[in-house]
Specification:
The structure is a single chain. With 362 residues, this protein is an alpha/beta fold. It has a domain at 46-249 and 330-350: Alpha-Beta Barrel (TIM Barrel), CATH 3.20.20.100. It is 37% helix and 10% strand. The protein contains 13 helices and ten strands. Strand 7 (201-204), helix 6 (210-217) and strand 8 form a beta-alpha-beta unit. The protein is globular and about 50 Å long. The protein starts with 5 loop residues before the first helix and ends in a 12-residue tail after the last helix.
């Protein structure tokens, strides 16, 4: 089997969504098995390369102070380009490069990437091309489960791909594999954090496997960020309450509901958008910001990139916020809901990302 047959993965995900019970997803909301720690404060990152960071608010984007005292912009660019991942990785990285350059020139200062997106070289080159100083940018990536047994070395490889000597945030991308490997990877992240190579630590999709979530919460440094699928159709109340117990910031992927036309053509959202002279997409992003989330909509279209950040000149009313909250469909509104104890969890562990070591032509 060739590595990263993404169409196959997406098909498996769709089967999980349409046969929810068969995928083994829990019927009840996840509940942490460890005691709550309201107001948890993490130790600060160690002195090192990351000490050069100089994050400020640009273009009205609000900052959030994380549980370790570090500040992060609550709006950024999601860089995954799924439709290109099964093809030529040179094209994928060139596209990511151009998107990142356009975003930084439009005022973005938060970029979300991952080794699994196979575009870290493109994202890093886009930063260079933009002319924006590295220390003014919040740069995120994620370790793939196949790297968990040697995560410390994988972090150094990641730094090389990005052409940088530190990262602002590194996630464990999926709670796949053995708990011992997940714990080992987290301890390697802690080591890099204490050495000043990383400014914040995060977990992505861990609300789907509580055994793994609880294992991380038993480690010395708890996460600063918890990344989950979240949008008006899946507002993830239980997962948000879980994050709040540990003073963990929620960051949302698929914030536009995977561009579901049922969401983007919602009568409720269209009426709110018309009232403010904004687009439905802008209303959805504004809702995320007013809910207190960090949000990372993705696009490769420069016009859409500029549109997505143009949301800090209006506010939704309390009534409008309530109308959007009423759109929540709970777990049934999700597009991505994997059972990590099954086939897909093993697939993530046994299939590392494809690598591109080519050179950019211009």
């Amino acid at each position: 089997m060739k590595k990263f047959k993404w169409l196959f993965i997406l098909l498996a995900m769709m089967l999980c969504m349409t046969a929810f019970a068969a995928c083994g997803a829990p019927e009840d909301p996840p509940v942490a098995e460890v005691p709550a720690e309201p107001g948890y404060t993490a130790e600060a990152p160690g002195e090192g390369p990351a000490s050069a960071s100089d994050i400020t608010s640009v273009g009205g984007v609000p900052l959030v102070t994380l549980n370790n005292g570090v500040q992060m912009p609550r709006f950024g660019l999601g860089t995954q380009i799924q439709e290109l991942e099964s093809g030529d990785l040179g094209i994928l990285n060139q596209t990511a490069r151009e998107s990142v350059t356009a975003a930084l020139q439009a005022g973005y200062r938060h970029l979300d990437s991952a080794h699994g997106y196979m575009n870290e070289r493109g994202v890093g080159q886009g930063i260079v091309d933009s002319g924006v100083p590295r220390e003014e940018i919040w740069l995120t990536s994620k370790l793939w489960p196949s790297e968990y047994d040697n995560a410390y070395e994988a972090i150094d490889d990641m730094l090389e791909r990005f052409q940088t000597d530190y990262l602002d945030l590194v996630y464990l991308h999926h709670p796949a594999g053995s708990i011992s490997d997940i714990e080992s990877a987290w301890r390697d992240l802690e080591r890099a954090y204490r050495e000043g190579k990383i400014r914040a630590l995060g977990i992505s999709n861990f609300d789907n496997r509580m055994e793994a979530f609880n294992a991380i919460m038993d480690e010395e440094i708890k996460p600063q960020i918890m990344q989950i699928e979240c949008h008006p159709f899946a507002q993830r109340i239980e997962a948000r309450e879980l994050a709040e117990r540990y003073n963990i910031q929620v960051e949302c992927w698929y914030p536009l509901g995977h561009a579901d036309q049922r969401l983007l053509n919602s009568d409720t959202l269209e009426a709110i958008a018309s009232a403010h002279g904004k687009s439905v997409v802008q209303v959805i992003i504004c809702w995320h910001i007013q809910e207190g989330f960090s949000v990372i909509p993705g696009s490769t279209n420069p016009d859409h990139i500029r549109e997505n950040i143009d949301i800090f000149d209006f506010e939704l009313t309390d009534e409008e916020m309530a109308q959007i909250r009423a759109m929540d469909e709970g777990e049934n509104g999700r597009f991505f809901n994997i059972n990590y104890d099954g086939f897909m969890g093993n697939y993530f562990v046994n299939n590392p990302p494809r690598e591109w070591n080519g050179e950019f032509t211009n």
